[in-house]
Specification:
The complex is a heteropentamer of chains A (313), B (117), C (141), D (157) and E (404). Chain C is of the alpha/beta class and 141 residues long. Chain C contains 5 helices and 7 strands, in the order H-E-H-E-E-E-H-E-H-E-E-H. The mean pLDDT of chain C is 83. The chains are: A mainly alpha (313), B alpha+beta (117), C alpha/beta (141), D alpha/beta (157), E alpha+beta (404). Bound molecules: iron/sulfur cluster (8 copies).
């Protein structure tokens, strides 16, 4: 009992995730800055931002519903933290694997977007509302390709459990090469899910000021930022668990190291994408998701089904 | 050739290059020669003609006689008003005024910006 | 106390700014923007430009206060969450500068809201903006 | 110079009443005082026949006794013809040139806002460029206007 | 049909000049459109009358910090014309040099802002990094990064020496290489083109009729450039091209600007190579004889106009300024009026070169029920397409143009 409490709260649960989230926010920002030929923030920046926000006054707009306004960020954070518990970190197994945990993780990872929507909707600000509508529209666009891209590998592995999928590809590392199209789709869709450029449409600063979070300040803004960062880590972990299952040493410390390196690689790719493109318009984004991402992920499923047939025969 | 991701090669190259940032304030700022910064006044040269006061577009400079007996003058500049145009410097017949390269004038106290130079 | 110390440290290390033009000639505005670009890169100090006053700690204000902008300036200031600071960037923002005496100009930023730091210059060099922020942070210390 | 002379000649031919009013400042600048009543006819003629298709701006000024309005119109070869008309300071009315030069709205609003002259037929009555909270009936560009209790103080006149 | 008032804006707190629009709706038609300008109205024209000619240079220079040299040049040209002064050749060349460097800085600035507005931070960062080269050059030549204070009545205030000439040439080489790279990026990067092409159409006839100026006009295919049509300073002796483009949309305006930068480099090279020797200013008495003059100057954003009238004293009787942005804005209201709400976003994109005001939202309020509808840019466009479809006009082609 005590052990699982530690597991949930400290390692690899909440505290570990938060630390990772802040660390990777730094990595992301620094990479982005360096790619733009500037120095970028110092290493402690995300921590300072977080502490400062936590200690700042919180203004709640008079028109907003205070209890909803306050509880939404906590939901967002709790959902990502729970999702993280089901993703394998230092080995082939996550902490609490069960049969369909892939689906559960995906649901958990949808929650933050829903909370962003609610946050925008309930803060009764013009900008925030537009931001939340955009967030919702975007959700419908990238969610399907993302699911399909992840379900392909799962089909091939014949399990809905992330741990089982990881184990399967660990035994057949070459098979994971088949999942390359899915990997691309997953990374791009993750970018959309994290609302980062070029899909930062819901909080396009030059168009709608702060987007969904326009009215949030202080502590609750800090929690939201933390939720977004942990979502990034969770997604990166999920992608690396499913798509890069090779090299899983039995030693937990080494395993953790390998895990960190993999997440770093995913974050690096995410940072490059963020830096390299102009923001899409919402209509362009939707078209892109349906015309390009969805067919590619469909292709992924077809590939996996065929591969499965070949293996079985 | 139309395509996308055109800037990625440049970005990746930047990863290994030194940033273009100057490390001000740790490093000295980059100021070109003859930058028009804060004014400097040479009391010995001034003849008190007050031409500088007349031409100043924002009424930022004031010349006062500080001695009863001798022709000694003191210039007061309101840094919070001076636009560093250098017209007073150009106009002064005795070259008693000069622009320095000092631009670090920020202050948390407005009063301290109005001072004798 | 350690806790207070940490908070104080975080405040100094993470000043997010919002920029407001209350009637400036654009020169100060572009110089403030230039301070974000690679050559000056104020993100080194944790400074980020925010669009929403709710997110910002420091209001960076340029230009003299015109009659039309006065109300807006006050609203923006009021929307910011405590603790908040104001930097008047440019001679205009300090005292209306060369526009002193124009009929639609009310004066410097301090005629509308309290100001914590003044940065003279017309326009201010981006380095001077940094200098202003650094001096403001020192004064908070 | 030839171009400018030719333009002057054509205008004088068409509007004989104007003869002698032209002042050719240099090869590309012509100033011409014209009566208010014929302003619209001249503008229309210049636009249609002499290809002065661009209205640069309208300057309104108060010379102490009269209001003067200067219509600066230009052609593609760089020649600018300035037509000057005068109205009395009280109750002066000028016609709107928007029907001829569609882009004139802002210039005419400025005349109304800053000088307080009536522009007849201007399809717009908003306050420009003075702020919304500017006191009514104060026209800062008039020579006798001084900042007063209702407008911001002038710390440094 | 109910009349509705729509405030459009509000102005963005983060960037550039503030302004906002409001539209009076009569059913679907716009009965009146209002650009609420004047947020920055400072009353400078009146202030000019109470200051001396010299003081006015510095005041007028500060109409705008982006084309400060344009305003002061235009003003001193007018005063010199009244006083009947011919400025020395060298002064004319120096003014041209600063004017062209200003154009480079302004266009690069615009390109960066455009990148920022379409969410392409990297383009913004790189362009502004290289813009610093121009800024350093200007600081070196004039003593300030913006508001150069280079002009005075009768000439210029600073000379340049041979080492500075060398530096200008060297910086131009670097800048030219970098600019060609940006031209490549802007004309080839699909994610940029997707955001710019087909947005904010302003056909040639409309641009002419509504008095648009500068790159907006030239992007609609009109060859009008004061440097050629009404040459001042040294332009009549220099060889350069007027860039035009037929896209008549935001992409066209981008193309015109980036290629104009290249022309500016060409002009700068000619200027420093052929700079004549001699004095840089002539003395002008403080009192200017009675007279009037009208001067035009091709600022980076278009034709800048100053009219000055003197009365024989050391203060002008009247100074009238018409900044280029005003001319472009005026055309916009005229385009909105009498049109349909559905057209508004497109029209606003056409407003100005830069997007700060374009990608905004619109709030529609029904004056009777008080009901509010909110649209963002994309939503309003969708609305406009549907609206036209209902009336039998198929805009899907236009839509295709937005998407490709
Ligand atoms: S300019 Fe000469 S004469 Fe005039 S006040 Fe000055 S010192 Fe006296
Ligand atoms: S112009 Fe020069 S000499 Fe005359 S009062 Fe001013 S500083 Fe002194
Ligand atoms: S530099 Fe210009 S503003 Fe400053 S005191 Fe001299 S004349 Fe006045
Ligand atoms: S000669 Fe020159 S320095 Fe001497 S009083 Fe006259 S203006 Fe001043
Ligand atoms: S201080 Fe100077 S540069 Fe800055 S806004 Fe005022 S006039 Fe413009
Ligand atoms: S240029 Fe005209 S409209 Fe603009 S601030 Fe000056 S007086 Fe006002
Ligand atoms: S158009 Fe006007 S506001 Fe814009 S940069 Fe030029 S002078 Fe400044
Ligand atoms: S569109 Fe023009 S006026 Fe509006 S913010 Fe951009 S530059 Fe300024």
């Amino acid at each position: 009992m005590a052990l699982s409490l530690i597991n949930i709260l400290i390692f690899p649960g909440f505290l570990f995730l938060s630390t990772l989230a802040l660390a990777f926010e730094y990595v992301d920002r620094k990479l982005c800055a360096r790619m733009q030929n500037r120095v970028g923030p110092p290493w402690y920046q995300p921590i300072a931002d977080f502490i400062k926000l936590m200690s700042k006054e919180t203004v709640i707009p008079t028109e907003a519903n205070p209890s909803i306004f306050k509880s939404i960020p906590i939901f967002a954070l709790a959902a990502t933290a729970s999702a993280f518990l089901y993703i394998p970190i230092w080995g082939q197994r996550s902490l609490y694997p069960f049969d369909c945990d892939l689906l559960v993780v995906l649901y958990f990872l949808t929650v933050p977007t829903l909370t962003f929507f609610l946050a925008g909707w309930f803060s009764s600000s013009l900008y925030a509302e537009i931001g939340s509508i955009r967030a919702m529209t975007q959700l419908f666009a990238y969610e399907v390709p993302l699911y399909m891209a992840l379900l392909g590998p799962a089909l091939l592995a014949g399990s809905w459990s992330i741990s089982a999928i990881t184990a399967f590809y660990h035994q057949n590392p070459l098979l994971s090469l088949l999942n390359l199209p899915g990997l691309c789709v997953a990374i791009i869709a993750a970018q959309g899910k994290l609302e980062r450029a070029p899909f930062d449409i819901p909080d396009a600063e030059t168009e709608i000021v702060g987007g969904t979070f326009t009215e949030y300040s202080g502590r609750y803004l800090g929690l939201f930022r933390m939720a977004v960062d942990s979502e990034m880590v969770a997604l990166a972990a999920l992608i690396s668990a499913i798509f890069f299952p090779a090299l899983l040493p039995a030693n937990p410390v080494l395993g953790l190291l390998v895990f960190l390196i993999k997440v770093l690689v995913v974050v690096f790719i995410l940072a490059v994408i963020k830096t390299a493109f102009a923001r899409f318009r919402i209509d362009q984004m939707v078209t892109f998701c349906w015309k390009i991402l969805a067919p590619v992920s469909l292709l992924q499923i077809v590939i996996d089904i065929i591969a499965k047939g070949v293996i079985l025969s | 050739m139309k395509g996308t991701g055109k800037m990625i090669p440049l970005m990746l190259r930047m990863l290994v290059k030194k940033p273009d940032t100057i490390l001000y304030p740790a490093q000295k700022a980059h100021v070109e020669e003859h930058f028009r910064g804060a004014l400097k006044f040479d009391q010995a040269l001034c003849i008190g003609c007050k031409l500088c006061m007349r031409v100043c577009p924002s009424a930022a400079i004031e010349i006062e006689r500080v001695s009863e007996t001798e022709k000694v003058f003191q210039a007061y500049v309101r840094m919070d008003r001076c636009i560093f145009c250098g017209q007073c410097v150009d106009t002064c017949p005795k070259k008693a005024l000069e622009n320095t390269e000092n631009f670090e004038l920020a202050s948390t106290d407005k009063e301290s910006l109005r001072k004798a130079i | 106390m350690l806790f207070d110390k940490a908070i104080h440290w975080a405040r100094l290390k993470s000043p997010w700014i919002i920029h407001f033009n209350s009637g400036a000639c654009n020169a100060c505005d572009i110089e403030i923007l230039a301070a974000l670009t690679p050559k000056y890169d104020v993100e080194r100090f944790g400074i980020q430009l925010k669009g929403s006053p709710r997110h910002a700690d420091v209001l960076v204000c340029s230009g003299p206060v015109t009659m039309q902008q006065r109300e807006r300036l006050i609203t923006i200031y009021e929307q910011m969450a405590e603790p908040k600071f104001v930097i008047a960037v440019g001679t205009c923002a300090c005292s209306a500068g060369v526009f002193n005496g124009c009929y639609c100009v009310e004066g410097g930023v301090d005629t509308a809201i309290p100001v914590n730091a003044y940065v003279p210059g017309c326009p201010v060099k981006p380095e001077a903006v940094i200098d202003g922020v650094v001096k403001l942070l020192k004064s908070i210390e | 110079m030839e171009q400018a002379n030719a333009i002057v000649a054509r205008l004088e031919e068409r509007f004989p009443a104007l003869v002698g009013g032209a002042n050719i400042a240099n090869e590309r600048r012509i100033f011409w005082s014209v009566p208010l009543t014929s302003l619209m006819d001249i503008l229309r003629y210049c636009n249609d026949e002499l290809s002065f298709t661009q209205l640069c701006t309208i300057t309104g000024l108060d010379n102490g006794e009269m209001f003067e309005f200067l219509y600066h119109i230009s052609r593609d070869d760089g020649i600018v013809l300035t037509l000057k008309v005068k109205t009395p300071r009280d109750g002066g009315v000028v016609p709107s040139v928007v029907p001829i030069y569609n882009g004139a709205i802002f210039y005419e609003l400025e005349l109304e806002g800053l000088l307080g002259v009536e522009v007849e037929g201007l399809p717009d009555d908003r306050q420009y460029p003075l702020p919304d909270n500017w006191p009514k009936g104060q026209y800062p560009l008039r020579k006798d206007w001084k900042p007063n209790a209702e407008t911001p103080p002038l710390p440094n006149p | 049909m109910a009349k509705m008032m729509i405030p459009l804006g509000p102005q963005h707190p983060a960037l550039e000049e503030p302004e906002s629009f409001s539209l009076l709706l009569d059913g679907e038609r716009i009965a009146a459109a209002t650009v609420a300008l004047g947020y920055n109205h400072r009353g400078m024209e009146k202030a000019c009358e109470s200051r001396t000619y010299i003081q006015d240079i510095y005041l007028l220079e500060r109409i705008c910090g982006i084309c400060s040299h344009s305003h002061s040049s235009s003003y001193v040209q007018a005063v010199e014309a009244i006083a009947g002064i011919e400025i020395p050749k060298r002064a004319a060349y120096l003014r041209t040099l600063i004017g062209e460097l200003e154009r480079v800085h302004s266009h690069l600035l615009w390109l960066g802002i455009a990148g920022h507005e379409i969410g392409f931070q990297t383009l913004f960062m790189f362009v502004w990094r290289d813009r610093e080269l121009v800024m350093d050059l200007l600081e070196r030549l004039t003593g300030n990064r913006v508001n150069y204070g280079m002009n005075t009545i009768g000439g210029v205030r600073r000379d340049i020496d041979s080492t500075q000439t060398e530096e200008v040439l060297k910086a131009l080489d670097i800048l030219e290489a970098r600019t060609s790279y940006y031209i490549k990026v802007c004309t080839e990067e699909q994610s940029i083109i997707g955001r710019l092409a087909g947005v904010g159409k302003l056909p040639r006839e409309d641009a002419l009729r509504l008095g648009a100026v500068g790159p907006v006009l030239r992007a609609s295919g009109v060859r009008r450039d004061m440097r050629k049509d009404d040459p001042y300073d040294a332009y009549s002796e220099l060889d350069f091209n007027v860039i035009t483009d037929d896209h008549a949309d935001v992409l066209g305006r981008t193309v015109v600007r980036v290629f104009e930068i290249m022309e500016s480099y060409k002009i700068c090279r000619q200027v420093v190579r052929n700079m004549p020797d001699g004095p840089i200013a002539v003395k002008v008495p403080a009192k200017i004889p009675t007279g009037e003059a009208f001067s035009r100057y091709e600022a980076p954003r278009g034709e800048d106009i100053h009219y000055v009238r003197s009365n024989g004293t050391d203060r002008p009787e009247r100074v009238k300024v018409r900044a280029p942005t005003l001319a472009n804005l005026a055309s916009i209201t005229n385009m909105i009026e009498g049109g349909y709400l559905a057209d508004v976003p497109i029209v606003i994109a056409a407003i100005d070169p830069c997007f700060s005001c374009t990608d905004r939202m619109i709030r529609v309020q029904d004056s009777r029920s008080g009901r509010e509808d909110r649209y963002d840019w994309a939503g309003l466009r969708q609305y406009s397409i549907d609206w036209y479809k209902k009336r039998g006009v198929d805009l899907s082609q236009t839509k295709a143009a937005w998407k490709d």
